[in-house]
């Protein structure tokens, strides 16, 4: 059977890329050469400059020779020893690993492909764009944080409601460092945090919030995605279940996730697609801006599923027909749009040039790689990882959003891509572009396999580090699959490269926050690298007002209290001092706070410290490298609106205090302090605000009481 023109239910489908359940029942395509030679290995992953030996293992015939026509690498025709090219650059990486093969459909440039036609998509591109919701609904959806795990930490048996054929052992993050979409309470409840907690009765299964848990297990090159995590026994329809769905896959594979076969197959989104590869990540974005490069993979977005039907390759999901749109469609900004001339008032001040460069990187990505329709949700909501976003990057998101919502970039500047020419098999993400095919030819026939070329990858384990002056040296972990790396940066202190990361020694004293950019580059390929921001906080008492950073429409900056103490909202570069994990409220541009007072707070001394909260649709994490010792953390809270009552976990070093700020303070716009006393023994002070919805905090101070 020809995998490129698979017959569905006995009838040739007029739209070659549509994947129906009947197609997936076959499970695989059967070669018409049943007696052909068998060669090994199949689809091996090969590093740049390295070799691998191929061999024929059955039905080898006589006179066998090896070839690799048009390959970037080479092969010895008689021995079968293949040598990879001396340089391979990964299209994208995560956790120090290449993320999918370079010619995978997610990583393929589609700028030169034609628009959709009736034969491919069931409608013309113009018709499909007219069926899509107005681009005035465009939003950035800051969804899930990433967990970086190791296989040595063990697995947890998972039972799924929708994807029971994916049941098995998974590498799950754990409290207190585990991270999930919409926060830990949305997935686990506080019963899994601290026994006897007042929120122990919270039922994650009943939460209306989405809660994906996405993880990379870097030491074995595996990605893992879970949707709708909850505790066993809480789903009345499946008491044994612990999630609605989930999938685990190799970072080097072409195989697409199994499509829906009844209620037993699928992934963690409605399209049956992977969610990690098309998620926009800060480290790749910053590197593209600094190097004048690009983000070299497709992004993903949601739309209202009432108008979306069965999946279009590479989607393997199944949905009853609802309209002219298909999961798996790839939208593209037309090449006729002049990205180089883009400008926006959202890019302002000293960071304006970086903001504009970051916005243009996104627009060029829309033109060259496009956006897949992958799930139900808000219309034109594009997915970003949940992470602290530096000021110019937040403003770049606003700039692009403003251009799309205002019609400056109209719907007519978009089309839908015809990817028919790229598909080799509906069950594979491999494309026809840049294949590396090793072939064995003998008297008994021929056999071939593709080689997956793997380039060096370098990533930091965190997008932003916070270190107090006077703390001991810290090794900032660099994740690297092979070849080594070097570190550089204009450090506020001293910096050196060590075997497992970049070692940074902060200064003994510092009067105000300072930040610098730290760069790690591959020793093999200097064009491959990554950056992170290191913020060095003042020695002595740390005082922060993270919700007060400046914005074009408000935001008041640093504050000096009535005792003459400075509370910092930004560092010397104009960046927010501490943005935690706060990135967005549910339906707003990703900024880490509201930036202005809400309601009437009165004239109490230092009320400024309570008026403006930072908040987000997730946990707010503050992990700071400090000297060991006993500490007092004074968190300053104020609920700015009624109807937002409810318990919140104020957690220090893994121990939570449960408070209902609205209730205990006596209503809205009333200040309240939550004081935590902790002992730090590992040099990491961890302060986390957890809530089922919209965690918030206005200011906090950290005071070292005494040394160990």
Structural features, described:
Strands 32-35-36-30-41-46-43-44 form an eight-stranded mixed β-sheet. Strands 12-24-19-23-22-25 form a six-stranded mixed β-sheet. With 708 residues, the protein is mainly β. 10% of the residues lie in helices and 30% in strands. The longest helix is centred in the middle third of the chain and has 17 residues, at 352-368. The chain folds into five domains: 36-86 and 434-454, Cadherins (Immunoglobulin-like, Sandwich), CATH 2.60.40.60; 103-143 and 279-433, no CATH class; 144-276, no CATH class; 462-537, Immunoglobulin-like (Sandwich), CATH 2.60.40.60; 542-706, Galactose-binding lectin (Jelly Rolls, Sandwich). Helix 5 (282-291) crosses helix 6 and helix 6 (352-368) packs across helix 7 (391-405). The model is unreliable at 1-15, 19-33, 191-201 and 579-594 (pLDDT under 50).
């Amino acid at each position: 059977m020809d995998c490129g023109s698979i017959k569905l239910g006995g009838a040739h489908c007029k739209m070659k890329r549509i994947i129906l359940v009947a197609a997936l029942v076959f499970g695989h395509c059967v070669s018409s050469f049943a007696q052909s030679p068998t060669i090994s290995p199949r689809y091996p992953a090969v590093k740049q400059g390295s070799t691998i030996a191929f061999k024929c293992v059955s039905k080898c015939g006589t006179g066998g020779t090896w070839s690799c026509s048009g390959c970037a690498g080479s092969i010895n025709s008689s021995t079968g020893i293949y040598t990879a090219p001396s340089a391979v650059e990964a299209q994208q990486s995560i956790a120090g690993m290449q993320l999918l093969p370079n010619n995978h459909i997610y990583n393929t440039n589609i700028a030169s492909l034609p628009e959709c036609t009736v034969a491919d998509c069931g409608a013309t591109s113009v018709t499909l764009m007219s069926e899509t919701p107005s681009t005035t609904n465009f939003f950035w959806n800051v969804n899930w944080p990433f967990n970086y795990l190791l296989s040595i930490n063990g697995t947890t048996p998972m039972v799924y409601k929708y994807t029971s054929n994916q049941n098995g052992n998974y590498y799950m993050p754990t409290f207190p460092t585990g991270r999930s979409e919409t926060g830990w309470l949305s997935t686990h409840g506080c019963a899994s945090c601290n026994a006897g907690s007042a929120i122990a009765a919270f039922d994650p299964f009943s939460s209306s919030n989405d809660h994906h848990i996405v993880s990379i297990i870097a030491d074995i090159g595996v990605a893992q995605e879970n949707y709708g995590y909850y505790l066993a026994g809480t789903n009345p329809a499946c008491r044994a279940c612990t999630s609605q769905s989930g999938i685990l896959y190799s970072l080097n594979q072409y195989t697409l996730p199994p499509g829906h076969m009844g209620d037993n197959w699928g992934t963690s989104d409605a399209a049956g697609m992977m969610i990690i590869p098309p998620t926009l990540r800060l480290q790749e974005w910053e590197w593209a801006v600094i190097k004048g490069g690009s983000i070299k993979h497709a992004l993903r977005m949601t739309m209202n599923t009432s108008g979306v039907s069965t999946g279009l390759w590479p989607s393997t999901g199944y949905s009853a027909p609802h309209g002219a749109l298909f999961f798996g469609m790839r939208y593209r900004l037309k090449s006729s749009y002049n990205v180089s001339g883009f400008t926006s008032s959202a890019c302002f001040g000293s960071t304006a040039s970086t903001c504009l460069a970051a916005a243009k990187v996104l627009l060029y990505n829309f033109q060259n790689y496009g956006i897949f329709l992958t799930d139900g949700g808000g219309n034109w909501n594009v997915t970003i990882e949940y992470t602290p976003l530096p000021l110019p990057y937040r403003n770049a998101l606003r700039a692009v959003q403003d251009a799309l919502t205002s019609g400056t970039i109209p719907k007519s500047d978009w089309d839908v891509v015809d990817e028919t020419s790229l598909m080799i098999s509906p069950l594979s993400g491999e494309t026809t572009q840049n294949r590396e095919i090793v072939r064995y030819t003998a008297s008994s026939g021929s056999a071939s396999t593709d080689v997956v070329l793997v380039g060096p990858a370098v990533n930091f384990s965190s997008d932003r580090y916070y270190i107090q002056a006077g703390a001991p040296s810290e090794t900032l972990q660099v994740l690297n699959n092979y070849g080594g790396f070097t570190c550089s940066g204009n450090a506020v202190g001293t910096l050196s490269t060590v075997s497992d990361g970049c070692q940074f020694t902060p200064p003994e004293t510092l009067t105000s926050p300072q930040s610098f950019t730290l760069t790690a580059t591959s020793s093999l390929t200097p064009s491959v690298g990554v950056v992170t921001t290191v913020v060095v906080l003042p020695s002595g008492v740390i005082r922060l007002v993270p919700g007060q950073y400046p914005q074009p429409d408000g935001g008041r900056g640093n504050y000096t209290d009535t005792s003459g103490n400075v509370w910092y909202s930004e560092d010397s570069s104009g960046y927010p001092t501490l943005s935690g994990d706060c990135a967005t409220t549910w339906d707003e541009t990703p900024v880490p706070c509201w930036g202005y007072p809400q309601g009437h707070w009165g004239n109490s001394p230092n009320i400024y410290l309570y008026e403006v909260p930072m908040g987000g649709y997730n946990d707010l994490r503050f992990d700071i490298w400090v000297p060991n010792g006993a500490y007092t953390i004074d968190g300053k809270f104020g609920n700015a609106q009624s109807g937002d009552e409810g318990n919140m976990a104020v957690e220090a070093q893994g121990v939570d205090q449960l408070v209902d700020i609205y209730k205990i303070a006596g209503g809205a716009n009333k200040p309240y302090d939550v004081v935590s006393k902790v002992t730090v023994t590992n040099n990491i002070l961890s302060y986390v605000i957890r809530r089922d919805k919209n965690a918030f905090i206005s200011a906090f101070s950290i005071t070292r009481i005494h040394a160990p």
